[in-house]
Amino acid sequence: MKPDLHAEVNKNSAFLDRELSQLMFNRRVLAQAEDKSIPLLERLRYLCIASSNLDEFFEVRVASLLAAGAADGSLAAHPALVATLSRISNECHLLVAHQYEILNNEVLPELAANGVHLVRHNERNEAQRAWVKEYFDNEVRPLLTPIGLDPAHPFPQVVNKSLNFIVSLTGKDAFGRGTAIAIVKAPRVLPRVIRLPDHLSKNGGISFCLLSSVIHAHISDLFAGREVIGYSQFRVTRDSDLWVDEDEVKNLRQALKGELLGRQFGASVRLEVAMNCPPELSQFLLDQFGLHQSRLYAVNGPVNLVRLNEIMDHVDNPALRFQPFFPGFAQKPGSQDIFSALRKNDILLHHPFQSFQTVIDFIRSAALDPAVVAIKQTIYRTGMNSDLMEALIVAARAGKEVTVIVELKARFDEEANINWADKLEQAGAQVVYGVVGLKTHAKVALVIRREDNKLRYYAHLGTGNYHPTTTKFYTDFGLLTCHAGLAQEVNEVFIHLTSLTKPHRLNHLWLAPFALQNEIIKAIRNEARIARAGRPGRIIVKINALVDESVIRALYAASKDGVKIDLIVRGACTLKPGVPGLSENIKVRSIIGRFLEHSRIYYFRNDLAHDTYLASADWMSRNLFRRIEVAFPILDKALKRRVLAEGLNPYLKDNINAWELEADGHYQRRKARGKQTSFSAQQHLMETLGTPNAHLGE
């Protein structure tokens, strides 16, 4: 029986609840952890992903809602907000309980059956207990600093999402005082998952224990002469948004460096404790963190499931993982000069099915090519280690004009981006931090090359980040082109971002916050006009989220006019599909598979013109009005067909990883019926675009 998540939401509303829709995405991820057709360690990974998603949901979304209520004094003055938070709390408690049910009743027992054991204290034999005791004495205890609470030792600062313990004690301390509560912080330098020596694992398997279990087993050793009468692990989740007054600060990078230090101690939004935590201790913690009882989550296991990812680093059993995948190459490395190739044809890249190495080669070639005079690139997320950033540094040191627009406020990547900004500036690059008040989310790069005494532009435009790790796990499209119109407009975008002048009229690119929403709505209305004239109207869109009400209203209107609309929306979607008189021509589906669906594709049939755009932007107000975003057309007819054949049609055919949204906000998993053949879009693309048997020659 499916939970009635939306029962409290106004049924007459034309929109679904955004927060509940986002949480429903987490339910679909959890379903992967339950799917027995998926290798066991991958199921554990999905469980960790769901936990990480929920962490971020609290750090960002719940935190922003609580901050909005606090801004005007108290939540009580905002009954609608209180109702929203209540719905969120109910669903999150159900989700968390379900996570631990899957962990304890399915994943851990099945791992044990496959020789991978997570051994709790009461399950350890004498030899294992002796080893754990020695590990505690030698590796853990020296790093612990128990803090007995009294006026001279107030409740300590607790870092966001860190592992801690609260302990209740009897008797008096060494000074004759009755300090009853102590706090123990788990050292952050220690692994959370500890592998036991192989000779202590039965039947040739692998055994692990958790750091939390090690400390629990020996916590009384920290309080000689006193009795521990109650204890629990706990973790507090905090508001992780960074706030700086961009109109006031003179140096955004320096201001953010200061804010990063304080992020770990933002306002508390959630408290997690062990299920057996004494009520008086959980209440004490709630009081210390200023949290309502509804923010308490008592869990049946470790308070941070994400840490179980560490198990996968130690288990080398191919049968428990997805089969290795090796991407194909749109252009074989070293096969020919990439600039010569682009003068012949545009190159369309579909990651991770095709290697991101082609993009790296593009920037590396530009850095080393004496004919290249300038390189410009936006950076939203790139990670701590990046061949692309190193190539830009090489180019700057070689005397080329290198301009990099670094988004310093890319959430959770601020530190990496600040570090790269420092290195780039030291190398001589011009570093700009985008536009005050707007995040630069566009993914574009430009190479300017002198050829035959003229400057020629080469561009890369993408739907995903220039990040070496995520390009292996996120589905994204990228276009390499030297089309004069497109590439010159990319240069106009860079001039706009660096000079802050109004951009010239763009004939190809749709740029947010100036024109993107208007162009989207114009294209939707054009399909409606075509449908009213009696010709086929068709829209297919693939995005990560759909919550912008103006765009949704335009889609509703187009549906009423007879336009057939298919929306492939991975995450939050507040549009109600299939409602008579409103959206009966709209279908919404979500694909949850091996790779995270991240590409954004807008397709409008437009009387067989087949207008096809790839974009960095989802259809959310923040993308359309509070970010610099770029949607770019695919102009080559053959490449348009490829986008349809790879990025849209397979996903509409998928009956393995597809979930269909119902008008009430629930999702139903689509399955092959009768004589239908089972079909996975991602598996199809792996088989058609990947490199077959690449590992056999290793």
From TrEMBL:
Identification of the protein by name: Polyphosphate kinase
Record domain Polyphosphate kinase middle: where: 128-310
Cofactor dependence: Mg(2+)
Residues at which Mg(2+) binds: 381, 411
One of the protein's GO biological processes: polyphosphate biosynthetic process
Keywords, in A-Z order: ATP-binding, Kinase, Magnesium, Metal-binding, Nucleotide-binding, Phosphoprotein, Transferase
Enzyme Commission code(s) on record: 2.7.4.1
Secretion signal, residue range per the UniProt entry: none
Reactions catalysed, as given in the entry: [phosphate](n) + ATP = [phosphate](n+1) + ADP
Residue span, Polyphosphate kinase C-terminal domain: 337-501, 509-682
Annotated function: Catalyzes the reversible transfer of the terminal phosphate of ATP to form a long-chain polyphosphate (polyP).
Record's comment on post-translational modification: An intermediate of this reaction is the autophosphorylated ppk in which a phosphate is covalently linked to a histidine residue through a N-P bond.
Stored InterPro entries: PP_kinase, PP_kinase_C_1, PP_kinase_middle, PP_kinase_middle_dom_sf, PPK_C_dom2, PPK_N_dom, PPK_N_dom_sf
Annotated GO CC locations: polyphosphate kinase complex
